[in-house]
Amino acid sequence: MTEIYGANVPVSKVQLRIKLSNLVDKDTFSKSDPQVTVYCRNSTKSQWLEIDKTEVIMNNLNPEFAKPIEVDYFFEEEQQLKFVVYDIDDFTGKNTSKNDFLGEYITTLADIVNARNKRIKGRLLKIAHGDIIITAEEVSDSKKVVIYKFSAKKLDKKDLFGKSDPFFAVYRRVSGNGNDNLLLTYESEVIKNTLNPSWKKKEVKLAKISNSNIDEPLVFKIFDWNRNGDRDYIGEFETSIAELAAFKNKEFDVINVKKKAKKGRSYKNSGVFISEYCEVKEEYSFLDYLAGKTNFNLTIAIDFTASNKDPSNPSSLHYRNPSAYNEYQQAIYAVSRVLEVYSKDKQFPLYGFGAKFNNRVSHCFPLNGNEMQPKVFGIEGIMNAYAYTLRNVILYGPTNFAPTIKKVIAECEQKERTEGKGTNYHVLLIITDGKISDREETIRSIVKASFLPISIIIVGVGNDDFETMNELDADEVPLRDGTTVMNRDIVQFVPYRAVNAANDPKVLAKQVLYEIPEQFISYMKQNNIAPKQQMNPENSFISEYTPAFNRQDSFIAGKDSSFVLDPNASFMSTQSTTPAANTSTSRINSMYSHTAAQPYNPYPYAISQPSFPPPQYQNSVSVTQPVSPNQSVSVPQYQNSISVTQPVSNGSVSIPSTQAPQAYVYMQPPPYGYQVNGANPYAVPAYTAQAPYGVQYAYQYQVQPGQVQTQPQSPQSPNTSTTQ
Questions:
Q1: I need a labelling partner for 717 at 20 to 30 A (CA). Which of 56, 464, 521, 662 fits?
Q2: How far apart are CA 543 and CA 201, in angstroms?
Q3: Where is the VWFA domain (predicted)?
């Protein structure tokens, strides 16, 4: 019998319900007979695989299909979905070429379940008109959990100088190639130095432990844990969730098969396993909280210590390869492209540690150079800030995790004070090449973080010894800070090369993210936080934000002509002056092409000088040097100075003809990846149909002493000014 490890268990199972409207009519003497075929793939490199089809609805341009499409939802995967609509003319299925194409729609399952009320609207593509509404409903069995309290007594002694360190593992029987195999579905915590362990009351998803079947035969195996990673077999027994739930304090003999065969009738057991309590219960699920719009905040911390070697050296883990990502870049991209969709504002704090930054060694410095606002926008901002930092810091040391963990703790506590508990959940991604220097302080910080809505992911790159990281993972032995034991398991460590991430980057995302939903649910339940009330379905929406896989079709830089995340690119890229009639493909070319990149500007808001100020602004002050926020522009004719709140670079500040203490700065739309004066980028109609890409926007920044007000104006054609 073979034991299989690493079962890929979905977070939930959802049904997708589809409604279409305003379809193109392809039939001459009647209306179209639509049907939707749904395809799925896990990356842009893989093939589309058909999941299922809806029924055919006859003679209808606004069909609502009764048959749902059932899909397994994996938080840690990028599950791309394609909905293709056909007017069915061949009902036999023998000659599908007769069917007429009515459009298609591509999104991700994460986009759907993360939308308000798990409902999105979209326009069918590659066709004149047509709309689609997709609603996700969670299958009720996905919400069921098993709550248990187990113990054991008189287990066999396995340690030479002690007793045993027992834990139990649960296996489900699966068939394959004519063999009966055991699939590992769950492991308990370790209880140290005892033959009579009492495990904590815990819960596990029914879908994970028994494939949502309470009658599924399960094999419980009890092991003795060893520090070197080995496990000594104590014994096993077989049962089911239904049997465990039927009786309290039910006892099972723990049988060591080899020992029984050797001793024969004289063998009784290797201990007794006691099911004190077991219950199957339906509770709030991860998707319930997503529907309530809980926001995920990703923070990234990158190791810039000297052990990584000089970035210009091809053997460096930070090597600046013009045609491929290094291990740091691949790890950043693999994780952030999955988590990006769960963030409301797509803004991510980005830190480095272990480098000389601004002529001093820093253990937590912002990669964008802004201590007050360390966030960058989107994957593009993350990747380009990293590339810029490599050229502007000196790799140094030592490797300290605690300062960054404390930063996340402080941000988490501040958000809980201002927005309330349950509104935000924080994920810290740390990428490092070896041992840490502040072990005790890091453990202390992790223990504190375990009481907060925080998960920590550690990715080890290179071939160094990661023994300390395995200790921080704490899957078997919880971390302690004095007498305080960590409240819950919040750390997941994965060595990059061990999972062969270079050949299949999405494997890394699976490994580091699959525990996040359970850690999230654990925090919410411990703090009795219910999902927030869902909004009216009629208010459901999907953001204009484009998913990562639609912005880049190739993982490796330099492989895709339409969009390149250049490892050597700066923060900004020049905006195109392409006419409004440009296609979306041209728009992507102009927005992301690194060949047009500008030199890095620490104040990344390009301010353009208008052709002339509006009539009420008869005077202007030229700015020949960059002006940072909160600096002043001298106004000699008024013997005054005016404070600016947005950076100015070779633009102008227009002064009103009256001597009021205010000024207006003219500005183009910001480059992709940046906010405008703290406003939500989605609220800025820079890329909507009403104002095609290439048409300038004029933003007025009204600056008054002690007060700042932002007044976005209506879009204008180039060389046209604003009037009040």
A1: 662
A2: 41
A3: 297-473
Helix (H, G, I), strand (E, B) or coil at 382: helix
pLDDT digits (tens, 9 = 90+) for 387-400: 889 888 999 999 99
Strands 360-362 and 355-357: antiparallel
Per-residue tokens: 722: 């604003």
Q: Which pair of structure tokens corresponds to residue 640? A: 């005054």
Residue type at 212? S
At residue 620, the 3 state secondary structure works out as strand
* pTM (predicted TM-score): 0.62
Q: Name 13's Cβ contacts closer than 8 Å, sequence gap at least 6.
A: 70, 71, 72, 73, 138, 139, 141, 142, 207
List the domains of the chain with CATH numbers.
3-138 (2.60.40.150), 148-282 (2.60.40.150), 293-526 (3.40.50.410), 619-712 (no CATH)
Per-residue pLDDT tens over the stretch 71-103: 989 888 889 999 999 999 877 767 778 899 999
Q: Among candidates 320, 328, 306, which has minimal Cα distance to 391?
A: 320
What span, in angstroms and rounded, lies between the C-alpha atoms of 714 and 272? Answer: 75
How would DSSP label each residue in 484-528?
Answer: EEPSS--EEEEETGGGTTTT-HHHHHHHHHTTHHHHHHHHHHHTT
Buried b (16+ CB within 10 A) or exposed e, 88-126: beeeeeeeeeebbebbbbbbbbbbbbbbbbbbbebebee
